[in-house]
């Protein structure tokens, strides 16, 4: 009987395999990396950080600008000269034009510009950590959803095997009833159990299809694309807690982002302290000027040449605002340190919890694998006795349900182990794409 169940199940899923695309985990991960919206957004944010990380944005480079000024007037003018004579002219036209290029360069600002440049580089590094965290999160989501489908396929296979047995029970009960060796009640009970199994399968198929839609959403492709996943869950059995903890402290993206966030706060304080020092600016340019006046000693003038100068300012008193800004920056550094320590504790707690689940589920797999084999043997023996009429249908149904429940628990234990493994690798920053 067990061979018949296995054969029919193989035919059922073999037909499904031919009718649907087989989506491997590697292909799913590749599609997610290419299409996932959150990964694309994080990639663009990193490009923004990289674009902003430049000398000009830090204020280190000079600025060069072209300028043009053109002023015109038309006035009724009256001028009294030094000798007492009066000169008048209506609609006197005046014209002033200046144009050229100017260069402005801050050569010293208390080293704040260099702190800003380092801060921009740190922001870019933080963007890389955030991109890595986003990629790891989405990879983890694909892993979990994919293996959830594998688990559900295994559960459907178990339910389908139960339907095969229920169909056989209905056939056997019908034959026994037709020759008067069984009551109508036995036949009706067998049909009820068959319909119960079919209903269970339909509900499981609904969950399976909805999970497919969820995976298609993660892959950012047509939600109605149909596919099949592999039928086995593989997992590592030798993950070491100390190694995972060491890797997490070195390369966990969230932890690295908090370390960089503290550095950004420290650089912000460095910039604020730079305001205590003098600011020195150099100015230079090449200008052209021209002016015309209808009335006056000079009716026309023009000039061209270099202009240059230096500007220096020293802060003396600003109403104690500088001290307050520095204190605020110090508090921000303290908060960043607290958040960093909090992240370390949370990371270690998550690692310990997931590792405990990982170890427990490895043991459960061994137990449930043994239970499946025992339940299968029990079902075979029960069906053999049922065919010769030595046991009741209730005993058959009990053996049948025990087999289904054992198979579901075994599939669930495998999936839970895989969840723990994926979570541990995600925290350690070692979740690979293959």
TrEMBL record:
It comes from Flavobacterium ponti. Its main location: membrane. Coiled coil: none annotated. It is found in: Cell outer membrane. The keyword Transmembrane applies. This is TolC family protein. The keyword Transport applies. Keywords: Cell outer membrane, Membrane, Transmembrane, Transmembrane beta strand, Transport. SUPFAM superfamilies: Outer membrane efflux proteins (OEP) (SSF56954). It comes from the Bacteria. Belongs to the outer membrane factor (OMF) (TC 1.B.17) family. Pfam families: OEP.
């Amino acid at each position: 009987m067990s061979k018949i169940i296995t054969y029919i199940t193989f035919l059922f899923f073999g037909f499904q395999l031919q009718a649907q695309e087989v989506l491997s985990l590697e292909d799913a991960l590749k599609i997610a990396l290419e299409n996932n919206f959150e990964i694309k957004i994080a990639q663009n944010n990193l490009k923004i950080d990289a674009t902003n990380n430049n000398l000009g944005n830090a204020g280190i480079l000079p600025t060069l600008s072209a300028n043009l000024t053109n002023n015109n007037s038309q006035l009724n003018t009256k001028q009294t000269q030094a000798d007492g004579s009066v000169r008048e002219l209506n609609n006197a036209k005046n014209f002033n034009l200046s144009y050229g290029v100017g260069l402005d360069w801050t050569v010293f600002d208390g080293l704040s510009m260099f702190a800003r440049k380092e801060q921009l580089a740190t922001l870019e590094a933080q963007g890389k950590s955030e991109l890595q965290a986003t990629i790891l999160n989405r990879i983890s989501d694909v892993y979990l959803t994919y293996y959830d489908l594998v688990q559900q396929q295994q559960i459907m296979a178990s339910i389908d095997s139960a339907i095969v047995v229920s169909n056989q029970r209905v056939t056997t009960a019908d034959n026994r009833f037709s020759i008067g060796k069984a009551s109508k009640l036995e036949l009706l009970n067998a049909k009820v159990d068959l319909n119960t199994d079919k209903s269970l399968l339909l509900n499981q198929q609904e969950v399976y299809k909805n999970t497919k839609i969820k995976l298609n959403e993660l892959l950012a492709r047509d939600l109605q694309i149909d596919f099949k996943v592999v039928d086995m869950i593989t997992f590592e059995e030798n993950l070491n807690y100390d190694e995972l903890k060491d890797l997490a402290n070195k390369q966990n993206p969230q932890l690295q982002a908090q370390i960089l966030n503290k550095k950004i706060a420290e650089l912000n304080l460095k910039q604020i302290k730079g305001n205590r020092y003098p600011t020195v600016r150099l100015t230079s340019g090449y200008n052209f000027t021209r002016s015309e006046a209808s009335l006056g000693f000079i009716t026309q003038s023009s000039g061209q040449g270099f202009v240059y100068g230096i500007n220096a300012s020293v802060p003396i008193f600003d109403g104690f605002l500088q001290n307050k800004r520095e204190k605020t920056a110090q508090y921000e550094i303290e908060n960043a340190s607290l958040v960093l320590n909090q992240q370390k504790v949370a990371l270690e707690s998550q690692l310990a919890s997931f590792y405990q689940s990982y170890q427990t589920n490895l043991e459960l797999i061994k137990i449930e694998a043994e239970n499946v084999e025992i339940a299968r043997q029990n079902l075979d023996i029960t069906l053999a006795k049922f065919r010769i009429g030595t046991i009741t249908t209730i005993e058959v149904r009990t053996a049948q349900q025990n087999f289904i429940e054992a198979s579901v628990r075994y599939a669930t234990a495998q999936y839970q182990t895989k969840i723990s493994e994926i979570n541990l690798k995600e925290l350690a920053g070692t979740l690979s794409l293959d």
